[in-house]
Design goal:
The structure is a single chain. Helix content is 11%, strand content 56%. The chain is mainly β. The protein has one domain. It is flat, with a radius of gyration of 18 Å.
Length: 170
């Protein structure tokens, strides 16, 4: 009986890190003018352009998060916070992502704020209840939130911004 108790305790201890916040610090090579897709349900996503041909992800995955899916193939890079199939309570994940400056961004969140700056490719930024903020000089932008604010300070980029119940500032 003691042996079974010890085994159960060891298994429970091994499972604990998956329930706690997890630090993230990963890099992948990326095309200088590729597409970076980012998916995060809750928390925050801050994207900044830089002069390297790689994508860097740092931050924390919220308590209860299953893992970070981070892959790069050809001109497409995916950064996705994966939640358990039966997630009843998961804390928000806060990510800081650096992308090649000329990248095209496609960011989708539910209740996570989105910030994008220093990216010269096209921006598609969508959140259900998070705030969407973009600055710099993107090629074009499409920024939307259902119940969050949208603020765009793009130099001369064509685009559209929309919020159902939040403020829109251009």
């Amino acid at each position: 009986m003691r042996k079974l108790g010890s085994v159960l305790m060891a298994l429970a201890a091994a499972a604990m890190p998956a329930l706690a916040q997890q630090r993230v610090d990963e890099k992948r090579p990326a095309s200088k003018d590729g597409t970076v897709e980012i998916r995060n349900v809750a928390g925050s996503v801050k994207v900044t352009g830089w002069d390297r041909e790689e994508v860097s992800v740092t931050g924390t995955l919220g308590k209860g998060t299953e893992r970070l899916e981070f892959s790069s193939s050809g001109k497409r890079t995916l950064v996705k916070v994966v939640l358990p199939q039966t997630s009843h309570h998961v804390d928000g994940s806060d990510l800081e992502i650096k992308v090649p400056t000329a990248s095209t961004l496609d960011v989708e969140t539910v209740s996570a704020d989105i910030t994008a700056e220093k990216v010269s490719g096209a921006l598609k930024l969508e959140s259900v209840s998070g705030t969407v903020t973009a600055g710099g000089d993107p090629a074009k932008f499409d920024a939307r939130s259902v119940s969050g604010d949208v603020e765009i300070t793009a130099a001369s980029a064509p685009g559209r911004a929309k919020s159902v119940s939040g403020d829109v500032t251009l």
